[in-house]
Design a protein that fits this description.
single chain; 169 residues; mainly alpha
Length: 169
């Protein structure tokens, strides 16, 4: 009887542990995604700024004369030189890399949360089996162990709410 009681308690503790892991994964996603999205936003803003400056200099070049053209040409050459060095050092655009990282992170967090939910439900299954099978159901009844409820994972894709990345960016 003591062995059965301890086994049931151990299974109940596994449920608590699994539930805590889900909380950790959700907190990790909650804290990390805004930081990653902020980084992506900064990279996109920086690259957009460079492209905007180049476009502005090109358009002002066509409407100016003489020494102003030389000054604009010098600015454009300097900007393009810096851009060329960036491309040589980083063949892929940083924003592309950052956006890809954000997408991978979102998928990774979803997979980790899903794995934690499966572990929780597996712990619930083990516990519920232990309190409903003979002879441990007698010990469970004596000590008031009640069946645990499975975590409801939404299976209908239309009911899932996708994170709105536009709010982050």
């Amino acid at each position: 009887m003591i062995w059965t009681y301890n086994r049931i308690v151990k299974y109940k503790n596994h449920i608590k542990f699994s539930k805590q892991n889900i909380d950790v994964q959700l907190k990790k996603r909650f804290e990390a995604l805004p930081n990653i999205a902020s980084t992506v936003k900064k990279y996109l803003s920086h690259e957009n700024e460079i492209h905007t400056k180049i476009a502005s200099l090109r358009s002002s070049y066509t409407t100016t004369n003489g020494s102003e053209k030389i000054a604009i040409e010098n600015q454009l050459s300097k900007l393009l030189g810096n851009l060329s060095v960036s491309f040589e050092n980083y063949p892929e655009l940083k924003s592309n890399e950052s956006v890809t990282h954000l997408q991978r992170s979102i998928n990774e967090f979803a997979e980790q949360i899903s794995a934690s939910q499966r572990a929780y439900n597996n712990s619930v299954l083990t516990y519920n089996d232990s309190i409903s099978t003979f002879p441990s159901n007698i010990v469970a009844s004596i000590f008031g162990f009640k069946e645990e409820i499975y975590l409801n994972i939404i299976s209908d894709e239309q009911e899932r709410e996708n994170p709105n990345i536009n709010n982050l960016l």
